[in-house]
Amino acid sequence: MFKKVLIANRGEIACRIIETCKRLNIKTVSVYSSVDRNARHVIMADESYSIPEADPSKSYMSGQDLINICKKSGAEAIHPGYGFLSENSKFAKLVGNSGLIFVGPSPEAIALMGHKDKAKALMEKAGVPIVPGYHGKDQKNLKRIAEKIGYPVLIKAIAGGGGRGMRIVRNPETFLSLLNEAKSEALKSFGNDKVIIEKYIEKSRHIEVQVFGDGKNIISLYERDCSLQRRHQKIIEEAPAPGISEQKRSAICAAAVRAAQAVSYKGAGTVEFIVNSSDEKFYFLEMNTRLQVEHPVTEEILGLDLVEWQLRVAFGEELPFKKIDFKACGHAIEARIYAEDVSGGFLPASGLIEKLIFPENIRIDTGVSEGDKISTYYDPMIAKIIVHEKSRAEAIVSLKRALSKTYIMGLKNNLEFLECLISTKDFKNEYVYADTIDKQIDNLIVSRTPSSQVLALASLGILGFYNKENINDLTGFSLWENSSITVSFFNNMERVLASVKFLGGSRFLVKIDNHEHKIIFASGAWQVDNEKVAFEFIKSNNNFCITLDRKYDFHTNDNLEIIEPSINTGNTFVSPMPGQISAVNVKEGDHVKVGDRLVVLESMKMEHAITATANGLVKSIVISPEQQVNEGDILLSLDLEAT
């Protein structure tokens, strides 16, 4: 086995690989950019080397620098993780030509499967069904081609993945603008702006098959359902896929093996399919020639360590097992926790992680720690929570419990959204499709209105009275009368004023508006109006959380500059997040209409279009392409009167 391996990645996947290497007594070498100097993967590795740039293209995607560090450290192999250079055939070839081992498939397999047009043609020859569409070389007549296919269509970067370089187009009027966005995003993410056009299948399921090969034998390791997505990125994955018959499972797994055999596949890979729910037919989407973010659910139901077998196969070992050796045990679900503004269209968020608490006895894959900062340069994933139980129903209960015991403070995140998502009847009843989130978004984004009892407990928490250690017989003592204090805090944009009267020791009377609650701590338990309650209070700087029947978030400063609701609804447009201006689509004096794209902002490897919310005349533009902007920076203004 290898004695030392360099990990050409960061975040949770780098930490995940390091954990397996430690178990196998393999020394690890990490690399880090200028903003990752104190990152978790750097601390975990045996050795660390700096690539002094923040931009991924000049750090984690700087192939020759990675190879030089690998040689300098004495490492024998490079594990690319996922993303960055993991599916770059030129890098894989460069690694091999440098006398090192690339932990992954051959450069030829990566090149064939990495370009969707070539992969589709190859799959047709291999007898694997493909989605109807255009996979040719012509990039000049794509609008005409799309009209021939029939709307809605899906634009996909041929070298893409992770939802980047992908846009759904529902009418010819928006085709060209969305095509330009997809091409621009693809060029920046993958160095290639070519796209293919496919028929967009409504109400579809996203099913993928884990395959593994050693260059001679190829097996499938069950399937995963990854249908629940937003912005074309997965957030809930599970294995086995619910509602799949054994006959359908055999057919789809056999097709995946044929796909891998077509390129003599070696290592871990995933063959992705789209399943049309109207007729249950499945079609090849793409093959990811790397480990997937969602690989843990497969590991859990089979009791495997896929990273270990990546390393063993790369070292030259043969697979010690066949598919018949495995039978899925129970059900596993993974939830991805992101720093993002859910109510703002799932825009990526950045900032300091002030508080980070995970539940015990649950698998957590993460690359961050409390006190770390989520940067605008990289993917905003905070962690993955993975549960494994005997049945899907039990796994859902376990995941809900785990999410409720997870606390993240300091930046916006999707924790509450995930809890709502897995609590829906459709999810419980296995009615989930690729467009489920889009169609149910209004029901999934709901503000939790705390009761007056919750607000009363929150007011005590602010004063520090949330456990018996902070309360004694002299709490609130006054010689003349029971003392009281007014507490002010905020729930979203709503200000709360509470009057807390000290009745002596652990007895309080809290008044909020027209509500009054007597709260007592006695015999090791809290009572609100003579009823026992169990609550938790978690605080970090100005943010705090109360958990009673569910979690409620509050803060003690009003943060109006952050939660201003009227952003970009008038004549002045500001940046909704930190990032870089990718394109300015208008110039001063231009007439614009509602929905016209004004500016394209790039943040966390994704592009976001800022559109006009009213008809008007472009009055002034204060930014230019490639300029860095912060959240709230003014971009341009319109004269709403001059239409």
Considering the chains and any ligands shown, give keywords for the structure:
643 residues; Rossmann fold; Dna Ligase, domain 1; D-amino Acid Aminotransferase, Chain A, domain 1; 5 domains; six-stranded antiparallel sheet; 17 helices; 32% strand
Q: What can be said about this structure in brief?
A:
26% of the residues lie in helices and 32% in strands.
Query: Total number of β-strand segments?
Result: 42
Number of structurally distinct domains: 5
User: What radius of gyration results from the CA coordinates?
Assistant: 27 Å
CATH fold-level topology of the largest domain: D-amino Acid Aminotransferase, Chain A, domain 1
Q: What would the average pLDDT be, to the nearest integer?
A: 90
Main sheet properties: 6 strands, antiparallel
Beta-strand share of residues: 25-35%
Low-confidence stretches: 476-480, 558-567
Mind explaining what this structure looks like?
Strand 1 (4-7), helix 1 and strand 2 form a beta-alpha-beta unit. This protein is 26% helix and 32% strand. The chain has a 6-stranded antiparallel beta sheet with strand order 26-27-28-29-30-31, with helices on one face. The chain has a 5-stranded parallel beta sheet with strand order 3-2-1-4-5, with helices on both faces. A 4-stranded antiparallel beta sheet has the order 6-9-7-8, covered by helices on one side. The radius of gyration is 27 Å and the shape is globular. It has 5 domains: 4-103, Rossmann fold; 132-199, 2-Layer Sandwich (Dna Ligase, domain 1), CATH 3.30.1490.20; 330-446, D-amino Acid Aminotransferase, Chain A, domain 1, CATH 3.30.470.20; 452-549, no CATH class; 562-639, RNA polymerase II/Efflux pump adaptor protein, barrel-sandwich hybrid domain (OB fold (Dihydrolipoamide Acetyltransferase, E2P)). It has 17 helices and 42 strands. The chain is α+β, with helices and mostly antiparallel strands.
